[in-house]
């Protein structure tokens, strides 16, 4: 099969490309960074260098493809996150329709149906194609954003790196990280990007007649239980995951000079996690859990933690 993978060599796209190439598929990886071309080719894939904002580039790249994995990278430099995501999603939908792609697997999020600005899934409803929506839970790799704060403060939050007008968020000093409005004893499903990649690889080879939704997770636990696993790995077994209230979160975002629309979206995302609605939807779907557990990831995390 000829398969297009977007997302350059990111946390999901890299292992996905490796799996697909190992399966003898003809893989093209889309990246906006020309410096990634050699690395992509070294994997046995073809590089397509261009921007997802360029609809013509996407349509040309998708021509002749049997299947496309489409993802929209979150951008915290966009004043209107929802507008940005809708714009890129529409580019995808138009390009996919123009190229006549028959199989599309879209990376979404497990809170997408609960957060208005993040939900772009409906833009793919009109395609003359078989569409599957992937809704992965909270990524293990998000913990990498917390390394400086774990080292200096000894607690974890949902952190967002913010760069506005050349300023970093100030709530955590020089780390430029903000805690989010979920954590503590909130129950969360975490997921390894490797498990997401395996699930996407499976879906790309299928052709369901109707639009399908697939949730992906690796392990469920409270945020504090997750913090303890990470803490033990780095020699801080007392590590806690601190949760901010919505009001505290909003105050912090204002301090960081985050645009109002973006701040509202970020708070809505965290509130959906804290409410338990994301977990409820995940349980209703009854997905099979992935193979990579948080304790496995914690070993990789500890290596990076010690190096920084």
From TrEMBL:
It holds the Pfam family NAD_binding_10. Residues 7-118 form the NAD(P)-binding domain. It comes from the Bacteria. InterPro entries: Ergot_Alk_Oxidoreductase, NAD(P)-bd_dom, NAD(P)-bd_dom_sf. This is NAD(P)H-binding protein. PANTHER family: PRESTALK A DIFFERENTIATION PROTEIN A (PTHR43162:SF1), PTHR43162.
């Amino acid at each position: 099969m000829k398969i297009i993978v977007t997302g350059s060599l990111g946390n999901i796209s890299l292992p996905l490309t490796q799996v697909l190439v190992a399966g003898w598929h003809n893989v093209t990886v889309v990246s906006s960074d020309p410096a990634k071309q050699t690395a992509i080719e070294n994997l046995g894939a073809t590089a397509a260098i261009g921007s997802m904002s360029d609809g013509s580039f996407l349509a040309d790249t998708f021509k002749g493809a049997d299947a496309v994995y489409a993802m929209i990278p979150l951008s915290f430099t966009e004043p209107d996150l929802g507008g940005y995501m809708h714009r890129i999603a529409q580019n995808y939908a138009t390009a996919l329709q123009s190229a006549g792609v028959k199989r599309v697997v879209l990376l979404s999020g497990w809170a997408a149906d609960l957060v208005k600005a993040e939900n772009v899934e409906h833009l793919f409803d009109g395609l003359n194609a078989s569409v599957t929506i992937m809704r992965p839970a909270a990524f293990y790799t998000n913990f990498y954003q917390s390394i400086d704060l774990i080292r200096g403060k000894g607690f974890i939050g949902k952190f967002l790196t913010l760069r506005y007008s050349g300023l970093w968020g100030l709530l955590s000093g020089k780390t430029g990280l903000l805690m989010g409005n979920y954590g503590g004893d909130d129950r969360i499903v975490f997921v390894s990007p490797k498990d997401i990649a395996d699930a996407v690889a499976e879906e790309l080879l299928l052709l369901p007649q109707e639009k399908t939704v697939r949730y992906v997770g690796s392990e469920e636990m409270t945020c504090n239980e997750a913090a303890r696993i990470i803490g033990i790995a780095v020699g801080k077994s007392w590590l806690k995951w601190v949760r901010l209230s919505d009001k505290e979160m909003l105050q912090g975002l204002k301090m960081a000079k985050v645009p109002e629309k973006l701040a509202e979206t970020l708070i809505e995302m965290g509130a959906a996690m804290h409410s338990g609605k994301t977990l409820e939807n995940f349980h209703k779907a009854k997905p099979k859990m992935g193979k990579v557990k948080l304790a496995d990831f914690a070993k990789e995390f500890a290596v990076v933690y010690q190096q920084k």
